[in-house]
Structures are given as structure tokens and as C-alpha cells.
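Friendly challenge for the regulars: who can give me the C-alpha cells for this chain first? No prize, just bragging rights.
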Amino acid sequence: MSKLLVLYNPDHINHFWQSHVERPERVVSLLEGLSFALSSLHFGKVYFENEKLKVFLNKDLIVLEDIENFLYLAHEKDYVSYIKTICMEKKLGFLDLDTYFTSYTYKVAVEAVGANIISYYLLKDYKYIFNVVRPPGHHATKNKAMGFCIFNNIATLAKFLLKENIRKIFIIDFDAHHGNGTQEIVYNDRDIYYFSTHFYPGYPGTGSKDENNEHIFNVPVDPDSSDEVFFNIYGNYLESLFESCKPEIILVSAGFDIHELDPITPLKVSYKGIEFILEKIKNLAEKYNLK
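First reply, four minutes later:
Bragging rights claimed.
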């Protein structure tokens, strides 16, 4: 079994607004960094064409039919239709103060969701799959785009896994901001655990401990938190949750805006801190024999 597969959607470059911080360079630089740092990577390209998801992987072509139907696992049909129509008819604009769209946005957002769905079918060949896709997703609610997010990529995958009879799904979200959309979508699914570290108070205004229940684990941190805070959370608390939850699979919303050099968030996590978080997640996956 190969170790790591990276899936990305090349069409993401067409989801672009001049001078906006959510821009193609975020993916381009990450792919370049991965290629430079790791020589044994496998890459797959994801496209949405003629109502089908197509994945080009080495010399193979994988096709997934009716990909749009998967969107309804996490989103209301009227909302999906609205996004599709506004992108087709208006071509360019904003869905809220932060979240723009272009004529390509619906296509690209479906590809981002589709990359997550197709990952499930590829786990037989790869131990880890990293989806480097745009637009992001964890702020998107059932019926609203916000915080740069159109469709909720990770919540859609979690809902899909339930339909595939996978139970005890554990989502780890270490983005600087709380994944309000993910929490909303999975809030009533007791077999989906949601664990989020994020600075609080701050955008989007959710994520306090008061919102926690038996499967929602918000761990808000002070806005100026640095490595030591995350060492304690991911080095101790997270493993204790795994002991009690006994998940079958780990899904990760990887928000690298926790880094101290990020221009719009206040957290002060170093490269070493991010490496520690990722290493702890990897170790937990191996310890409990999870995908």
C-alpha cells in the first residue's frame, strides 16, 4: 500500500477575485512545497465535467456519477440550486462580505467536495490522502456560504461515510477559526465526533465550550496562544478522547492559518507546533489502526 496521495483540482485557479486573500496561490505554493519536501508522493487531478467527477490518477481514470447528489447530504437542495444558478447567470459577485463567486465557482466547489468523496474509494490503495482543494468548506452551513466557503467538504464526506456504514467518524479541525458550518451539519449525528481548536472570541462567533455535547468537542484558546497551548491539547487531551470514542476513521480540516506569520489571524503557532499537531494525529491513526 502506498503511503500518501495528494488530490487537487486544477480548475481552482478560475475561482479568483483580484486582491482577495482566498486565492489560487494558497494551493499552488502548498503543492510546490509538498513536491519539494517529499519525493514519493502520488498526485491525482480532479475535474467536474458533464455532471461527472473525473479523477486522473497516474495512468488511470476514475469516474464518479451523480456527484451533485452528494451535496444534498449536507446542504439543502434550494441552496445548491441557488449557488449553481447565481454562478451561471451573474458570473461574478459576493455571497456575503467575505465570500466571492465567479462563473467557475460552482464547478470548482463541486470538485472540492468530490475529491473528498472519491478519497473513500482510494483508501484501499493509500494509507493517507491529502486533499489540497479550493474553495475551503468548514464555514459553509446547510444553506449559507460564508468565510470563503461554498460547500462544506468535510461534513459532506462525514455524512457520506455514515451511508457507507462507517461509524465513529472523528473530525479534527485545527483551523484558526471555528468550523461553525461543520458543527451545525453534524450536530445531531452522534456517530460523528467533531473536535475543534480555534481562537475565541473571534470569527465566526461560535465555538464556545457551552456548545459542546457528547460528540462535539470545542477547545477554544486565547487569541495569542502559541505552541505550548497546542502541545498540551494535542499531546494529552486529544488522545484521551480517542480512548473513549474509539473512532474508525479520522478526517482532518487542516487550517494552516494558525501559523504565527498568517496575516489575518492572531495565533502564534510555529512550524514546529504545526508539525507536532500533524505528528500526533498520524500517531493516533497508527496506534488505533485508523485510516
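The chain has a mean pLDDT of 95. The domain at 166-291 is CATH 3.40.800.20 (Arginase; Chain A). Your move, everyone else.
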